[in-house]
């Protein structure tokens, strides 16, 4: 048999997917499983978007597009950033990608050389490490405390920047914690990275799902960041595999060259359909759905407190609660397993997101209906006894 590349030994497993497989198997056996595990909205694309996709298919618009995406969609994304997040973006800097994963792949390939070290917070989304590893880089997780909102800061970057450090990969709001980086803290962090002549890759996938105030893109602080975003979370188009990059002007040509080889283009029909996302009546649908997520968060937080599931930092975005389970267990793997098989509730153990808080932390997703969340709370309460 052919020998596998050594990088495959360093690829991080995604335990949330394994949990999803177990939950699906139990469901197939007839068990009623409430999933608070996978980070996928229970909402799907509004009917107007589906109709636009059908019209595009009937018009024969399913062929290759330019590697950077169709011009109307790049302009629409730039306008969206201006109107919703206060950031002025030239459409030429927008690269439409095959999901945020495609965006992270190309950003990593464009910026990371073999041996480069990239700083990330612990906890953080596990798959991001694999894009760094795939480009030959070394992801370095920095333990971040509740006092730091589980986020990197200028001080931690200063302390941990080494001779091989090349940049940082951060997210605001974050998966798994749902926390954002305060504006002044983010400004200081970016300045610290620039002082070392490094780069900032900023994951803004959950920026639209923000609940406490008016969200602003990191681009309003610095125009030379690499921004990752997606139609999966706020726009509820997970399987359509559509995302985007916003890059500094000097990176555009290199990213387009990579896109032409690594992806050819993002899915054509999804691109044409996504134009309808920005219609005013469709944006109103998304706003109502955002408020539904907020309602779910606001229901769960006091319930978790009542059940002694400590939430060290109130999430102000995304659709996750990162909870401390030490009142009930010191082993999140065992707790997650028992919760699934004894209570029929799926939630992700902490080891998916880094070792610092793994043994006593779990991620609970509230990307499911309020009635199911209420039933999940009842089951957890009975389970805790």
Can you describe what's shown?
Its cofactor is pyridoxal 5'-phosphate. GO terms for molecular function: pyridoxal phosphate binding; transaminase activity. The protein has helices at 15-28, 47-58, 71-85, 99-111, 127-134, 154-160, 183-195, 252-262, 268-274, 280-306, 332-343, 370-384, and strands at 34-35, 94-97, 117-122, 138-143, 165-171, 199-203, 226-230, 243-246, 320-324, 345-346, 348-349, 361-365. With 385 residues, the chain is an alpha/beta fold. It folds into 2 domains: 6-44 and 281-384, Aspartate Aminotransferase, domain 1, CATH 3.90.1150.10; 64-279, Type I PLP-dependent aspartate aminotransferase-like (Major domain) (Aspartate Aminotransferase, domain 2, 3-Layer(aba) Sandwich). The radius of gyration is 21 Å and the shape is globular. The model has no long low-confidence stretch (mean pLDDT 96).
Short description:
The protein is of the alpha/beta class and 385 residues long. The chain has helices at residues 15-28, 47-58, 71-85, 99-111, 127-134, 154-160, 183-195, 252-262, 268-274, 280-306, 332-343, 370-384, and strands at residues 34-35, 94-97, 117-122, 138-143, 165-171, 199-203, 226-230, 243-246, 320-324, 345-346, 348-349, 361-365.
